Amino acid sequence: MSFSALWTYQKERFPLLKTGPLLAMFSAASVTISAELAGRPLPGWGAYIAGFVVAMTLFFQMRVCDEYKDLEDDQRYRPNRPIPRGLVSLRLIISLGIASLPVCAMAVWLWHPPALWLLALVWAWLTAMTFEFGAASWLKARPVLYLLSHMAIMPLIDLLLTGLEWVPGGGAAAGLWLFLALSFVNGCVLEIGRKLWAPENEITGVDTYSGLWEPHKAALIWGICIAISFTLLLGVGAATGVFWVNAVLGGALLVICLNAAARYAQNPTEIAEKRMDTLAGLWVFACYAIAGFAPVIMRLI
Question: Hey, CA dihedral for 44, 58, 274, 253, is it positive or negative?
Fold first, then answer.
């Protein structure tokens, strides 16, 4: 298998230029907010390096699991994807996923071995997700439950990332649940946002939220998720003493996102579809940047 084929695969299925910065912010903010909520000094750089490696490998493992469980649907409805069209083999991608397991575990172990039990929790849930909790048909017939059950892995990943600080630090802060809830809702923001399509782009057999709920209702639900995320961001800000900073910065982006959702609902064009996908990622990136680093910056000013 050529390097160029793998490079094309990552561009299409795990784009490093897009995923890397988001996961760097996600992991760094998680480590930082854990310390800020507990009133502890920030940990050493080892925690941040371990967090980034863990985030990157775990999200790649999630992609590998998706390739495995979605192969039949991809072959039937999305033959242009890398594996169905023969660019790379499923065996190769699974092999790379397996190879990433010890890398992920080593990153945690080198920083603080007792945190490995949190990684085990994430892997247990990811395994259950891959096999659709033993109820694939039942779950797929209930798309909201499907979404919620799969997005539950986000706070588990965040529990692990924050655990790189709070396990060696002496325990989790009381307000950590706000940040974990923020991760859960932001997972929904990303997942729904990337599946708000223009009608002409809908594919028979491919589930999208615009197809499930129609564009207007789907945009409304996405906007509600954004609003809940903003509320949790305010809660994190209140817990870390930067409520008004979070309110102003988050509120400005909230207006932009809700305006885009309204425009998509009124006219779900391909341009509007791409805008929603972009704003979903931008919102999540900004949420973690504000939640994690506003307290640090305000303390330095």
Answer: negative
